[in-house]
Amino acid sequence: MQMEILKEYEEVIERQRELYKRYELKAEINAEYTEQSAQNDEEGKLINNIEKNSCLNFDAVITENKHYSKSNAIKIEQNQRKLAIKTEVSNAEDMAKLIHNNALKQVTIEVMEGVHLELSILLLSHKILPVSIIVNVHNNASLSLLEWFASGTERGSSAMLPMQQITVGKEARADISILHNENESSVLAGVSIVKAYENAELKLATAFVGNAMTKSALFASAFGKNSTLQVNELAFGTGSQVFDTSTAIVNSTEETTAEDRARCVLFDNAHYIGKGFAKVKKEATSAYSYVEHRGLQIGSNTKYVPMPDMSIDTRNVKFASHSASSMPIDANAIFYMMSRGIGEEEAKMAFVEGFLSKHISQISSGRFKEIVASALISKLREGKTVYAPVTSTKGIWYDKETNSSAAAKMKTTGIV
Amino acid sequence: MRLDISDLHVSADEKEIIKGVSLSVSSGEFHVLMGPNGSGKTTLTMAIMGYSKLKIKSGDIKIDGRSIIGMSADKRAQLGLFLQMQNPTEIEGVGLVNFLVSAKSAIEQNNKTQFRDLMNEIKQAASKLNMQDEIIGRSLNYGLSGGEKKKSEILQMLVLKPKIAILDEPDSGLDIDAVKDVANVIDSFSKESGAGILLITHYTRILKYLHPGFVHVMIDGKIVRSGGPELAEEIEKNGYLISKTY
């Protein structure tokens, strides 16, 4: 099923193929898993630390050789007992084939019709974790999901290979936050395929924080009439981290909304390539399509390559636009904050936090907002990915209902 | 607190803008600086606050007898200076409340600023300025009209309680009612706090609601005349040309 849908993705980006080839970075995956090799005496402690510091109690935890689920909505199957992979992946097809043929775990999350759930899952890769994740939100159901990806150790390298298929049924709502917080020696190569049916609403917010190399491909379709798709991706790079992301959003039918917003903060020698393609099909009259790439480059050795693009096959669109921009830290903004007594470094942090907050504000769940915000702020303050970031109430998020950061803070601190 | 500016010469991009300004403002004093467009008033305020793109060619700026030339803007603010900017910068994503918590902690040199107490202070200040509540929760100056930005600046002044406040055209962009609101707030603040005020304006409209003790006229980078409130009336009647003495 996933490979068939992937063909649709390949057809959508067909015209970009030659251009993208020049901007596809190779990810090397060289890892071996046996039950013995993935044993980690520290695993329990690491999971406890993440849960304690984030104030979360995960509904499911998945590693190579263990898994458990506390929720009836989450089913986990083990597929293989040993695995050795030595290969390179460049594009979505490579990654999908690799994961499809080697998946160690299959995770299925089913939210039945009319049911409303808030779930969180933790995936830990000790050596190599190819995992298939299928999320079905049935008609009239709603799901708020946090997927937290981490490495099985704080320093050793590992490979995280997730393939996700997310389907949001008629009149259903899904708000999915994905946090890639693997350590900075690791590799991530992942593919996601997403579909929203009639009158459905899907928000997908992904934060790429860890990994030496991140390769990500996302194909998202506003498939049913009046469906809404909001994709937000954030890459936060320090050191020599490299990100190569490719996102295709499609308005497949009439009255659909599809938005792709990608933000990127780069320090040191970090490198980001972001391909964002929007297709409005012939049948998609009155479609709303938007692609925006924004980069904040701090330091002269960073490299930011945004590639937004669009193909509109109908004359009758409500709105279609794509844009990209990059900026350094605004010196006038820093002076303004310093003129109020705030020190220069603190002012720069505040500025970067402000840039990140747009991504965080898209997450509906206040709790997940806080968790993602804390992971990002921890990295900002420490200059590197923090394994078990402490969730604090100094969040930089907005309360969606009131568009107010003050209201959000008051709710979290219990003042209101 | 006393701010002394002595024979100050300031350049921007190699062009001299301030050509020998001397001025003193002490706590409890209310000074007004007027002048035509391009006379260097805003450049003077930015130089006092330590804007790095301006070069001090000669002269001095002192606070309580101590030179602050070379001192960073945050340190100047921590000494008790405040600048309400003519064109406040918009900073998306930096919430006004969080910003004021950080600023107040920095100025008071402690981390004891309580969010709840500060929210009450902010709400009271907003009420005095007839500001809508929803503006408080927004990003710093982001998406605000010119008038709302000016009010937001004055709100910050009320919360941060400086010893000397430099207000650069607080009346520009405001309707007649808003001018009155802002003027009344500035007047109360100056009387209740004992702060020194240096207010820059083109027009005498706001001065109807204020009680300045000193009025200065700046033309082409120099203060050409100083006097009492009657000087403002003279400007109102005859314009700036009457003040040219160079």
Tally of DSSP β-strands of chain A: 21
Quote the beta fraction of chain B. 25-35%
**Portion in helices of chain A:** 10-25%
CATH class of the domain at 2-90 and 162-243 in chain B: Alpha Beta
- Over the alpha carbons, how many angstroms does the gyration radius of chain A reach? 20 Å
CATH architecture of the domain at 2-90 and 162-243 in chain B: 3-Layer(aba) Sandwich
Structure classification of chain A: alpha/beta
- Strand-pairing-aware structural class of chain B: alpha/beta
How widely separated are the two ends of chain B? 32 Å
- How much beta of chain A, percentage-wise? 35-45%
Number of domains of chain A: 1
CATH superfamily of the domain at 2-90 and 162-243 in chain B: P-loop containing nucleotide triphosphate hydrolases
Shape of chain A: globular
- State the strand order across the main sheet of chain B: 6-9-10-3-11-12
Radius of gyration of chain B: 18 Å
* H-E string of chain B: EEEHEEHEEHHHEHEHEEEH
Query: How many strands, which pairing sense, and closed or not: the largest β-sheet of chain B?
Result: 6 strands, mixed
Q: For the largest beta sheet of chain A, what order do the strands appear in spatially?
A: 3-2-7-9-11-13-15-17-19-21
Number of strands of chain B: 12
Describe this structure in words.
The complex is a heterodimer of chains A (416) and B (246). The longest helix of chain A is centred in the C-terminal third of the chain and has 18 residues, at 344-361. Chain A has one domain (2-328). Mean pLDDT of chain A is 89; it is low at 395-404 and 406-416. With 416 residues, chain A is of the alpha/beta class. The radius of gyration of chain A is 20 Å and the shape is globular. In chain A, the strands form three sheets. Chain A has a ten-stranded mixed sheet, covered by helices on one side. Chain A has a nine-stranded mixed sheet with strand order 4-6-8-10-12-14-16-18-20, with helices on one face. A two-stranded antiparallel ribbon of chain A has the order 1-5. Chain A has eight helices and 21 strands. Chain A has helices at residues 2-12, 17-21, 43-54, 92-102, 331-338, 344-361, 366-382, 405-413, and strands at 27-33, 60-62, 67-69, 74-78, 83-89, 105-111, 116-125, 128-137, 142-151, 159-168, 173-180, 187-196, 201-208, 213-222, 228-237, 242-251, 257-267, 271-280, 287-298, 303-312, 317-327. Chain B is α/β, with parallel strands linked by helices and 246 residues long. Chain B has a domain at 2-90 and 162-243: Rossmann fold, CATH 3.40.50. Helices cover 37% and strands 30% of the residues of chain B. Chain B contains eight helices and twelve strands. In chain B, the strands form three sheets. Chain B has a six-stranded mixed sheet with strand order 6-9-10-3-11-12, sandwiched between helices. A four-stranded antiparallel sheet of chain B has the order 2-1-4-5. Chain B has a two-stranded antiparallel ribbon with strand order 7-8. In chain B, helix 7 (176-193) links the parallel strand 9 and strand 10. In chain B, helix 4 (115-128) packs across helix 6 and helix 6 (146-160) runs parallel beside helix 7. The longest helix of chain B has 18 residues, at 176-193. Chain B starts with a strand and ends in an 8-residue tail after the last helix. The model of chain B has no long low-confidence stretch (mean pLDDT 91). Chains A and B meet through helix 5, helix 6 and helix 8 of A and helix 2, strand 7, helix 3, helix 4 and strand 8 of B.
